[in-house]
Amino acid sequence: MNCIVTAGPTCEPLDDVRRLTNFSTGRLGTELANFLTARGHRVTLFVSEAATYAGERRATAVKTFSTTADLRAKLKAFSGKKVEAIFHAAAVSDFAFGQIFAETKSGEFAALKASKKISTRKGSLLVELVPTPKIIAALRGWFPKAKIVGWKFEADGQRTDTLRAAKKQLADCATDFCVANGPAYGRGFNLVSADEQKHFADAQKLFAALEKIF
After folding, report:
1. FRET label pair with 4: which of 32, 117, 137, 164, CA 20 to 30 Å apart?
2. Looking at domain 2-94+132-212, what is its CATH homologous superfamily?
3. Crossing angle, helix 27-38 and helix 203-212, to 10 degrees?
């Protein structure tokens, strides 16, 4: 099986030294890529430059990404290749920075020109957050014949809320499966499809189940 695994957080720059990102180490996606590679599959791992997980990366090919736009462009560039499965575990930021405003001496706010490093002497800032395009919503168009697995990590709410969000992702993004996890779900993972939901106590059991569905 030729497959793609994405792992780790995207990072959206405010300037050259500050950024907006998600809490993600990249461990789960990297370990999934390692598992599939060990099982004899050809795996391309797209892993964030900001991933902090220091474990070995044993994928057939490893490519790095930075921003949401960077990951989006690199995945789209693969659309002409034979890809049978996509495991989209990357923690993609929902927002990027838009216009930045700095406080003036009069107490008003004026647009700030781009800078390599915004000085703290500028005082208070107002920063526009602009929604990023959903990568997972574009995957079906780029890879019409692939099986696509998305992730739904929820921090707030109850387990039922997380499972409901996973089902919504299937409908909204035309994916085949969604892995539900996070504090709202609790321990373990749930592999959600249009027809069923199945709980797995740990990552290795989840990985084995993901391989079997293809």
Report:
1. 164
2. CoaB-like (3.40.50.10300)
3. 50
